[in-house]
Design a protein that fits this description.
Number of strands: 22
CATH class of the largest domain: Alpha Beta
CATH superfamily of the largest domain: Aldehyde Dehydrogenase, Chain A, domain 1
Structural class: alpha/beta
Oligomer: single chain
CATH architecture of the largest domain: 3-Layer(aba) Sandwich
Distance between the termini: 66 Å
Strand content: 15-25%
Shape: globular
Bound molecules: adenosine-5'-diphosphate, magnesium ion
Length: 477
Amino acid sequence: MQQHFIDNRWVAPASGQYIPVIDPSDGQQFDAVAQGNAHDVDVAVGAARAAFDGAWGRMTATERGRLLQKLSQKLLDHTEELAQLESCDCGKPLKQARADVQAIARYFEFYAGAADKLMGETIPYQSGYTVLTLREPQGVTGHIIPWNYPLQIFGRSVGASLAAGNACVVKPAEDACLSLLRVAELTAEVGFPSGTINVVTGFGHEAGDALTRHPGINHISFTGSPNIGKRVVQTAAEHHTPVTLELGGKSPQVVFADADFDAMVPVVVNAIVQNAGQTCSAGSRVLVERSAYEEVIARLAQAFNQLRVGPATMDMDCGPLIRHSQLQRVAAFLDEARRDGLTVAGAGQLVQGAPEGGFYQVPTLLRDVPPSHRLAQEEVFGPVIAIMPFDDEAHAVKLANGTEFGLVASLWTRDGARQLRLARQLRAGQVFINNYGAGGGIELPFGGVKASGHGREKGFEALYGFTVLKTISIKHD
Ligand code: ADP
Ligand code: MG
């Protein structure tokens, strides 16, 4: 049974209650995590505040960077252990879990290097004045993490926040706590002062809500569903707590007839199969120029038909979904597609010997999906692509921008002028041209517009979100 990690030690939940931990590959319970409540959150926020006011807050940016670099190496040294934990807890095929460990280590490496390069400015002003700006840490930051990429999302948000000098309280998703508890323990081993990084596990409506409404929290970084994101902003408004929101997407891959199909097909397939489609930036819509429509469908269908789904340990293309309710949700979308007469152009298969109770969904390619259909508008969060044709550039842009989301988009075309013309017209936080960055790109600012959220994570840009700018005006003559 796992406890909270607060103030560099294991702390039992005040409630005395624990939440079962389920292996999605077979549906069986194999552990339990603490069910945190408002009391536990309050203790964690107190520990973080003491670290910020104490040993951690006194460190120089260079010292912070060195600790972050030590943590990065420590994580790499524990690659296999962390990958196994993540794979068992979340159902990720081992290869993908190992990639997640590489990514969290890379986040800490990147932010280690950035820690002492975050600078203010001097501003030309009236004569007799010198004006300068300081980028100061906000204080204690709260991090609400989803279950799809616990390690990566911890790396990107906690990494940036620590580099900027904040102390952190992390609330992992109730389905995916184990790897983050171990990471927290490793932060203590490399020498982060007590209270710098605290992990409180529990349900969103209980521990997550308590973190969001805590007056001692100076910033909330939330990654999750649009509905909960909205609620988090409303709750945080009570204390005017700023919120960074990274919500979902219905990201389009726009394929023109002049594209390099050999290069495009594996990337488009990976962008929906990775993590069984449970990726905010999954490329879940494929828009194809009408003259190449049948050829692109045929190529994608051929690739989909070869995909295999199985338990995490078998390391297939696709693992199980996170939990039974997620499987039901995806199945309901596919039932609706069937009822409305949508055509399945290609589908993967469940591998032989997959355990009975696992939450398996085969990757499915749906063709001729009407742009207004739920499958073309809503986030499925499973390995399902909706494919549809377009007639010309204007039509492609209209379809690409025609959902409530705006996270990522890609353009597949060899025409350089078209690449830039269209990249400017797409309403998305990231546009990829002849590539697609689902999950990757530690260095690249990431975030959405519209219902996909606001604020930027990843890259150097994220550091600004975790600081407060102070302007100092000095009159000297
Ligand atoms: P999903 O539906 O895919 O599980 P959620 O948005 O519900 O996505 O979950 C993302 C994170 O938000 C999780 O850590 C979850 O526990 C947390 N969460 C859920 N509800 C709330 C809430 N009311 N307040 C704060 N955090 C919440
Ligand atoms: Mg689990």
